[in-house]
């Protein structure tokens, strides 16, 4: 951590896909120390199916409310995307109710896209709600954040892009996530944004990501952590930047894939601007949100940061 901290001094990062609801305040502290300035939390599934629309409503409320506040208490600007995830799109009765409440959330401040949507098992139900949500993205002029399936990825990725084009979406408004070496070329060719999730043990490791940037350059390529309740790494974006520095990737390319491209892609929402975090106010950890704060009765300890980097 100490070496990372010193080597990355002065750099800024955006993690455009991270599920902070599942993470701890230690994660926020370490991310802020390593230069993560802004994050996007996509609405997704929570590990087990929800049984009523009220659970979705409360979850969406927390993404635009409490979680945003919690991030601010650690100096990080929090944004989100709102959508019905592919897995839960298979529960038709519930999906119908969720579709009804989506428009209200898509118009809220700090909502930078429709997401994460797409395919899981590539069922007819998933396709139906994917298409309906693409129409919502067009209506509200928001970028789309697409989750590509873990099983049968190549086919699912191609289908997702075909469907977007069928609905007349501009590929420049669509971020295809969880890519790998098999999908990158086609996604770049068709003009979509190509995001990569850096998982600590599977799929894209940082070294493979370095190789991809060496091969394809940095245009339209985005790195994220997709950290959630599973085995994942909330520091994946700064760690990838560190490895790229070590391997001699030019600074401009590192900045593009770990900061600027995400800003360009999601900036199209009109809700995601650099000025939001460059002119941030000093943090007051004693602040409350709805009567609740992060200190749990303790004194603010800025000293804490020092312990983390030692
Ligand atoms: Zn996700």
Automatic annotation (TrEMBL):
<comment type="similarity">
    <text>Belongs to the metallo-dependent hydrolases superfamily.</text>
</comment>
<dbReference type="GO" id="GO:0016788">
    <property type="term" value="F:hydrolase activity, acting on ester bonds"/>
</dbReference>
<dbReference type="Pfam" id="PF01026">
    <property type="entry name" value="TatD_DNase"/>
</dbReference>
<dbReference type="GO" id="GO:0046872">
    <property type="term" value="F:metal ion binding"/>
</dbReference>
<dbReference type="InterPro" id="IPR032466">
    <property type="entry name" value="Metal_Hydrolase"/>
</dbReference>
<dbReference type="InterPro" id="IPR001130">
    <property type="entry name" value="TatD-like"/>
</dbReference>
<keyword id="KW-0479">Metal-binding</keyword>
<protein>
    <submittedName>
        <fullName>Hydrolase TatD</fullName>
    </submittedName>
</protein>
<dbReference type="InterPro" id="IPR012022">
    <property type="entry name" value="UCP005295"/>
</dbReference>
<keyword id="KW-0378">Hydrolase</keyword>
